[in-house]
User: What shape does this take?
Amino acid sequence: MTVSASLLATAAVLCAVGGILMLTRPLTRILLGAVIAGNGINLLVLSATGTAGREPLLYGVALGKVTDPLPQAIALTAIVITLATTAFLLAMAYRSHQLTGTDEVHDDLEDRRIVLRAEVLGERDELREQYRAESDRSDEERRRYRAERRRLRARLRADRALQARGRDASGDLWHDVLGADPEHYAAEQDDGSPGPAPGPGAAPGPGPDPAPDSGPDPDDTNRGDTG
Assistant: This one.
């Protein structure tokens, strides 16, 4: 079987570029990386067919002159899968840009909390061992130890506050999750329908105008007349 060196080199370059792009944070670059890597893999699969031959038809072609149809079928399947992946990533990038103004993939808050907690606990244990290993401690060392403990606790409190803000779903989940656009909020406000509930700590917005009083006027002298 004869394989083209230029075809293999092109496929290797495409796979390398696609892999590098998929390791970045923006979803648009991940999308481009998936497309480029898919094309590189298709070239690698097609290079396994060897030399060019006749079309692999069932009748009218000698079997010794046709090319291998299996890599072609695999490449066609990979093209369909790449198209579906491209549509999925494109929808994710578009929706992320609508909601947050950017398509960058952020760190998961729960993963950050676990890593930070393990780091803080490790530093606290190390600090405690160093403090207990000293037999004669001065007042300055005690103050330094307490200040370091307060710093570690402050890091944990700040991360908990960040996680609480990340979990704040102050908007309408129907709009945020199921696909309504952010400008629909302004349209609902103009129509008089209730908008999304304000988040914690937000100033209350102006309420609806009070309805006019339909009762009798106490200053009306004819309020008892029926005629």
